[in-house]
Fold this protein.
Amino acid sequence: MSGSGQKSTHRTIERVARESYGRLVAYLSSHTRDVASAEDALSNALVAALKTWPHEGVPQNPEAWLLTTARHSLIDLVRHQRVAVASEPTLLLLSEESKEVTLPAEFPDERLKLLFVCAHPAIDPAMHTPLMLQTVLGLDAARIAHAFLVSPTTMGQRLVRAKTKIRDGGIQFEVPHERELPQRLDAVLEAIYAAFGIGWDDMTGVDQRGRDLAEEAIWLARVLLQLMPGEAEVRGLLALMLHCEARRAARRGPDGRYVPLSEQDSQQWSLPLIEEAERHLAEASSRGCAGRFQLEAAIQSVHAERARSGRTEWVAIMLFYEHLIRISPTLGTRTGYAAAVAEAKGPEAGLVVLGTIDLGSVSGYQPYWAVRAHLLQRLGKTPEATDAFDRAIGLAEDPAVRQFLLQRRG
Amino acid sequence: MQFALLIFESPEAFAARNNDETDPYLGAWRAYHKALVEAGVFVGGDPLEVPETGTTVRLTEGKRRVQDGPFADTKEQLGGFSILELPSLDAALDWAARCPAASVGAVEVRPLAPELKLRITG
């Protein structure tokens, strides 16, 4: 085969691996609950594809080919373990071995169950996001570790431990019952949003860790929406992330300087992403019952409106925050509310809101100090402002943000 | 538990020490130190003089061998350390990431070894 043909086969394998990874892992592990073995089997199948497809051509249904090959590999894996552990599901798998393994053109999409397993309350919340990134999207431990600022070995060990818990801890592959659903879905949404948050905070632009993770999070939300098209909060989360993503290019000046939202050139925002976000948000709000992510998306939607109107409706933002605080009184929400109140009613009013936040809870929370510094400066309270700027600078992780605050402090 | 943040700095970062008080790197350090103290996690720590001032001593076969310069000949050199009292490694990594040296050099996070200390100090 020619070099270019080989290259295109490799690209096909990469694409199929990316698009089908989660579906295959979910299907292969849904009965055995053994995610690690399913991943091993799939990676064996991908290695086999890399060996045979360049010579024999890409099969008609690549996904089915991978599934069949992975199943054979899984059966081999189980056969090796059968003496040691012969659980009911593995015996079932072995009994199917005698039957001819047919090429299934269609197999059920079990990714939703896998997402709920990854964000199960019995799994350490800190591992929800890494598990999703690995099992549903196929990211390797080293890349996940990089994003989470831990060593690859540590992340690898944590992932193994979490998967052992899934296999041995009696966690079922199922979509939660209706009464549990809101809370369980919330955990899934939180985990996806956490991945986006890591990507969002990391704006150094030097490495790609942030950007990629934000894209992966949007991909995960799209998968989830495809599986649960009727859930308004899923659309809310997707709308929120798309609104933020739309502004990515505007967040940095040509020299790499940090540009705050209020000073961003709205011409640089991505209109197609904003329009897509608006469509999801409209669809979500038509279902009534505004949840946390829809409200956050609505706030971003008001900001996006500036691209059309040239101004920001701070009163609308303030009102959305008031609603948001009632259902999600987090530090972030309360700080955002204070900033909105300051814009709508003046810096003193904003400071009053900040004053209601317990000081003990903000010693490590950078945005609180940045907002506080900004408001004090607007009031001409220079010594207090300098003090707050120092705290904000000291807690800043992004060098560009640090630089921005240093300049503002003067 | 206590962690040491070992601050490894580039030659440029060491050179910035000679600048006046408006230098952004020094300004970032002042703010970072303040944040550590205000958060109640700072136990101790100090900057070290520039690596060129280091002198390394080895005793081989009873003979004292003195070398002008730091122990390791690397681009990034130890420039100081902080000891922090924190609940977890994750918290220590958060503080390491905020350290101004993290974006121009590297910050190594190491737990202190209190048990070993006890065995040595009795």
About this structure: Residues 112-169+180-228 of chain A form one domain.
